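Q: What residues go here?
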């Protein structure tokens, strides 16, 4: 299989490296308008072919096109690739609007082509372990999902902090709670510098009384990647900044017993053991690249397909509507779920 990579900025070189390492990939062609980026790739990966023309790459002999460019270009490149009969890998978020995402899905279905959206954390060993624990019922019924992803920078020119950082944790939420339906969104935030929000709080309401909260921020003096998943049996903490014991499961919670009168209700706190499960250390992007190739060879949708990408874009659009109205609740006409 021949792979073309468009965009060699921050993430592009990692994509080139991972696709080069796959035995099913016979050629990788890298594309960027900046000559210094092409030179850098050639020095690191001598076997990679280079081009400064995206049109040349999109019309060339590549079987699949990997798009690692700014969000506002995703739709343009993906559509051209699909219309030229090529499978597509797109960085998150999938597109700038749900209408664009739906059109790309229709073109792909019509031409029997695969769309892969790079929600990389779904392939992360810690997240896969979290999924395993949730599926096995270790945590019980999920009551809440609380996430913090904050750091100093990097400010993006084309999207706000919600579109930049939240897709990571939204995709994890949707992956873990795939049977839960999102019914409404409320988002508040502020833009301090370039007119695009650099800090935001997102509230997600599900139809079964489950609740999720996300804090994203480009203007924090510390870097945090912290997630808490609370169940009625156990609770889980995922701290991606830790080198060891990234996941800790606590046998803690509340036992609530109601009586005839609310004044007689009994709340008992339960604090038990903590354990940290073993995590698969394989690079997430390696597993993602393998899944993309496998989905093409097996003629099936990948785990993180355009369908999942569309669902995240719908939530991001609802966030934008809410944040412009200072946190007003935005109901989703069609409940979003994986």
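A:
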């Amino acid at each position: 299989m021949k792979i073309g990579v468009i965009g060699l900025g921050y993430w592009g070189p990692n994509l080139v490296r991972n696709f080069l390492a796959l035995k099913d990939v016979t050629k990788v062609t890298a594309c960027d308008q900046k000559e210094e980026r092409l030179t850098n790739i050639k020095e690191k990966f001598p076997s990679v072919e280079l081009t400064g023309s995206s049109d040349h790459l999109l019309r060339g002999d590549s079987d699949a096109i990997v798009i690692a460019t700014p969000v506002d270009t995703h739709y343009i490149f993906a559509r051209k690739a699909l219309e030229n009969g090529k499978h597509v890998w797109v960085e998150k978020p999938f597109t700038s609007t749900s209408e664009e995402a739906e059109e790309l899905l229709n073109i792909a279905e019509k031409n029997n082509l695969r769309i892969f959206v790079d929600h990389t954390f779904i392939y992360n060993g810690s997240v896969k372990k979290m999924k395993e624990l949730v599926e096995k019922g270790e945590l019980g019924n999920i009551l809440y999902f609380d996430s913090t992803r904050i750091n100093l920078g990097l400010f993006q020119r084309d999207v706000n902090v919600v579109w930049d950082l939240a897709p990571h944790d939204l995709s994890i939420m949707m992956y873990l709670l795939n049977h839960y339906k999102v019914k409404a969104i409320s988002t508040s935030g502020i833009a301090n510098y370039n007119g695009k929000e650099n800090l935001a709080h997102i509230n997600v309401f599900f139809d079964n009384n489950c609740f999720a909260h996300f804090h994203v921020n480009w203007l924090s003096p510390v870097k945090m990647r912290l997630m808490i998943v609370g169940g009625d049996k156990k609770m889980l903490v995922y701290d991606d900044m830790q080198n060891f014991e990234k996941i800790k499961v606590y046998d803690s919670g509340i036992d609530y017993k109601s009586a005839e009168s609310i004044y007689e209700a009994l709340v008992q706190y339960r604090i038990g053991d903590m354990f940290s499960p073993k995590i698969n250390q394989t690079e997430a992007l390696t597993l993602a690249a393998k899944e993309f190739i496998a989905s093409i060879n097996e003629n099936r949708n990948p785990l993180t397909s355009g369908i999942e990408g569309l669902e995240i874009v719908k939530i991001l659009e609802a966030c934008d509507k809410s944040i412009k109205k200072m946190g007003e609740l935005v109901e989703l006409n069609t409940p979003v779920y994986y």
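A: Context that may help when evaluating the design: The CA atoms of residues 182 and 206 lie 4 Å apart. The chain has a mean pLDDT of 94.
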